[in-house]
């Protein structure tokens, strides 16, 4: 085990995925639902922020397809399960709702 630098935003009930030397940490809860996305570059151990998700989410599913991050479902701020899908376009650095 190695100790990593602390996340910029403390959270629980978040989602995470590792891809291409980057650890993505999405949404979660810090007393309220979060829409923040933090990324740890494992080569230099530096945290960066992606643009925030269009909505707050906890406990979402994540996938990477063609280097784009997909956020699927999760709980919204009312603790209802959502069925939407958001895609982060890594080239344009923007979010798009896909369903």
From TrEMBL:
Gene3D superfamilies: Kelch-type beta propeller. Keywords: Kelch repeat, Repeat. SUPFAM superfamilies: Kelch motif (SSF117281). Pfam families: Kelch_KLHDC2_KLHL20_DRC7. It comes from the Eukaryota. This is Uncharacterized protein. It comes from Capitella teleta. The lineage of its organism: Eukaryota, Metazoa, Spiralia, Lophotrochozoa, Annelida.
């Amino acid at each position: 085990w190695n100790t990593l630098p602390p996340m910029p935003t403390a959270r629980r009930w978040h989602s995470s995925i590792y891809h291409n030397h980057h650890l993505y940490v999405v949404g979660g809860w810090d007393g309220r639902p979060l829409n923040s996305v933090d990324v740890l570059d494992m080569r230099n151990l530096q945290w960066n922020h992606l643009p925030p998700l269009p909505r707050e989410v906890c406990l979402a599913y994540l996938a990477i397809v063609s280097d784009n991050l997909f956020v699927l479902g999760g709980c919204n701020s009312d603790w209802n399960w959502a069925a939407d899908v958001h895609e982060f376009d890594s080239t344009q650095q923007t979010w798009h709702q896909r369903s």
